[in-house]
Automatic annotation (TrEMBL), chain A:
The lineage of its organism: Bacteria, Pseudomonadati, Pseudomonadota, Alphaproteobacteria, Hyphomicrobiales. This is Ferredoxin--NADP(+) reductase. PROSITE patterns: 2FE2S_FER_1, 2FE2S_FER_2, FAD_FR. Residues 233-320 form the 2Fe-2S ferredoxin-type domain. It holds the Pfam family DmmA-like_N. GO terms for molecular function: 2 iron, 2 sulfur cluster binding; metal ion binding; oxidoreductase activity. It comes from Methylopila capsulata. Residues 4-109 form the FAD-binding FR-type domain. Gene3D superfamilies: 3.10.20.30, Nucleotide-binding domain of ferredoxin-NADP reductase (FNR) module (3.40.50.80), Translation factors (2.40.30.10). InterPro entries: 2Fe-2S_ferredoxin-like_sf (IPR036010), 2Fe-2S_ferredoxin-type (IPR001041), 2Fe2S_fd_BS (IPR006058), Beta-grasp_dom_sf (IPR012675), DmmA-like_N (IPR054582), FAD-bd_FR_type (IPR017927), FNR_nucleotide-bd (IPR039261), MRET (IPR050415). Keywords: 2Fe-2S, Flavoprotein, FMN, Iron, Iron-sulfur, Metal-binding, Oxidoreductase.
TrEMBL record, chain B:
Coiled coil: none annotated. It comes from Methylopila capsulata. This is Uncharacterized protein. Keywords: 2Fe-2S, Flavoprotein, Iron, Iron-sulfur, Metal-binding, Oxidoreductase. InterPro entries: DmmA-like_C (IPR048037), DmmA-like_N (IPR054582). It holds the Pfam family DmmA-like_N. Residues 5-128 form the Dimethylamine monooxygenase subunit DmmA-like N-terminal domain.
Length: 320, 200
């Protein structure tokens, strides 16, 4: 099956971390231990809304010492397709969800000598797991965490409690910015940088690394996106001979799955490339939201990543 | 171009200057000096940020060191041997920062030693730029006694340490910077094919 083994889980605890972030503790419904994961991994959470199945990727924060629960952090983003709103408004302790096996597209480089962890906003979730792992291994690391204001630092207190002076906090409301031009130029050989956060922040941090002469091999970013919504359009799967509609609050991949077609996917965040699909024809403009296809490939219009991209127009025909 | 279906066989991408780097650390041996000259000539900004370590070896009569000196690198160290060059390189790498880029040019055994030194200081092997120049002679590790034999141009070759006749494989150890040599007559002792000149 696409996306691998699924694990039925139940929500066993919910913490309101900030006004807009909730942390959910998930346990396997059959009580068995959840698989060990490496820091930076995520799971895809399937939510059964009234009229459809929503699937969103969420980074794993941690696994309890006895292996019985995972924690994920979810930011409420009202203008998206509804997954995070569903998690915030409809999911309660006792709710049942389904998750995939953990997949890691943002791993630590094990040969690194030192690690700089940079987080913005909800991007802190994989960074939190990475910091835990580095602390356990006694490898040198620093954490730089930018947030809107003190109330929106979903993990600030925990990070400082666990990692002390290795943590540097930056508050937008106090006009504090991560000074990449001071932090990056004098790092020793073998340092790796990991950044997760809003697109603009990721680009600024990576640009700072390049300006300081860092090689690409040492710069790592998680550009996860929840699939954005858009306008509805008609979808035809040429091989299956199925025509359906992709609703505005549905991703292309979710609409394909709703027809019963087992389409390929892995990250559901536009990063891994697993769901690459050939476009037979498009009456309208392809809206490429992924970070996998090159600019030339996007311009050619021959391929689409079904997990986050869609059509602005009338009809899309896919080679599925 | 050397082609092999063994994945560990190194591929040398050429000595392309990375303009983003703040410091260029260039280690060259013998004819490798010509690769360094080709890469840096006409690039004054890169030359002003470059530290070059050069061991002339068998190319001493061509006096490539003088040509390197004439280009005006920020620093040029002409070293008496490859081991002394690697020792000096290790001292420089110990205090280098992430803005430094490592380059290696010369025979394969030398490139292997430079890459191994860089990796030992935490540099990702993929960010080290390399160019093979000069002889195809290999540095070979005997997998039985672990002894190293340099400048191997034939296969099979007799291990210079334990005397076992070795088949020289394309199987390459990045950690050691050496190709692997395995006993060629293990099943039928004494049945050793004649040595072929493969890596002159």
């Amino acid at each position: 099956m696409s996306g691998g083994v699924e694990i039925p889980v139940r929500v066993v605890a919910i913490e309101q971390a900030t006004p807009t972030v909730k942390r959910f503790s998930l346990a396997a419904r059959d009580g068995s231990p959840l698989p060990v994961f490496s820091a930076g991994a995520h799971v895809v959470v399937a939510m059964d809304a009234d009229d459809r199945r929503i699937k969103n990727p969420y980074s794993l924060i941690d696994r309890s010492a006895d292996g019985s629960t995972y924690r994920i952090g979810v930011l409420r983003t009202p203008q998206s397709r509804g997954g995070s709103v569903f998690m915030h408004d409809r999911v309660a302790v006792g709710s049942e969800l389904t998750i995939t096996m953990p997949v890691n597209l943002f791993p630590l480089n094990r040969t690194g000598r030192k690690h700089l962890l940079v987080a913005g906003g909800i991007g802190v979730t994989p960074i939190y797991a990475m910091a835990e792992e580095l602390a356990r291994q006694s490898v040198p690391y620093e954490i730089h965490y930018a947030m809107r204001d003190a109330a929106h630092g979903a993990f600030a207190d925990e990070l400082v409690a666990r990692h002390g002076d290795k943590v540097r906090l930056y508050r937008d409301d106090a006009r504090e910015v991560i000074a990449v031009d001071r932090i990056l130029p004098n790092q020793p050989l073998g340092t790796h940088l990991y950044v997760c956060g809003p697109e603009g922040m990721i680009n600024a941090i990576l640009a700072g690394g390049r300006a300081a002469g860092w090689p690409e091999e040492n710069l790592h970013a998680e550009r996860f996106l929840a699939p954005p919504g858009g306008s509805p359009f008609a979808l035809t799967l040429a091989k299956a001979g199925i025509t359906t509609e992709v609703r505005g609050d549905q991703s292309l991949l979710e609409a394909i799955e709703a027809t019963g077609v087992d389409a390929p996917f892995l990250c559901r965040g536009g990063a891994c490339g697993q769901c690459e699909t050939k476009v037979v024809s498009a009456d309208g403009e392809l809206v490429h939201n992924d970070h996998f296809l090159s600019d030339e490939e996007k311009a050619s219009g021959a391929k689409i990543m079904t997990c986050v991209s869609r059509l602005q127009g009338r009809e899309l025909v896919l080679d599925l | 171009m050397l082609v092999s279906n063994i994945k560990s066989r190194p591929v040398y991408g050429g000595l392309k200057v990375d303009d983003a780097a703040r410091r260029h650390l260039v280690a060259a041996e013998g004819e490798g000096a010509l690769a360094a000259l080709a890469a840096f000539t006409g690039r004054p900004e890169a030359i002003a940020r470059a530290t070059v370590l050069y061991s002339p070896g068998g190319s001493a009569p061509q006096d490539h060191a003088a040509k390197l000196g004439a280009l005006g690198f920020d620093d040029l160290f002409v070293m008496p041997s490859q081991p002394t060059l690697i020792t000096r390189l290790n001292v420089i790498l110990a205090t280098a920062t992430m803005g430094a880029r490592l380059y290696a040019a010369g025979v394969e055994g030398f490139i292997g030693s430079v890459v191994a030194a860089g990796m030992a200081h935490g540099i990702d092997q993929a960010s080290i730029r390399t160019e093979h120049r000069g002889s195809l002679a290999r540095r070979v590790q005997c997998v039985h006694c672990k002894g190293m034999t340099d400048n191997v141009t034939v296969s099979p070759v007799v291990c210079s340490h334990c005397g076992i006749p070795l088949l020289v494989r394309d199987h390459f150890s990045r950690r050691l910077g050496a190709f692997q040599g395995v006993s060629i007559d293990a099943e039928t002792p004494g049945d050793v094919p004649p040595a072929e000149e493969l890596y002159a």
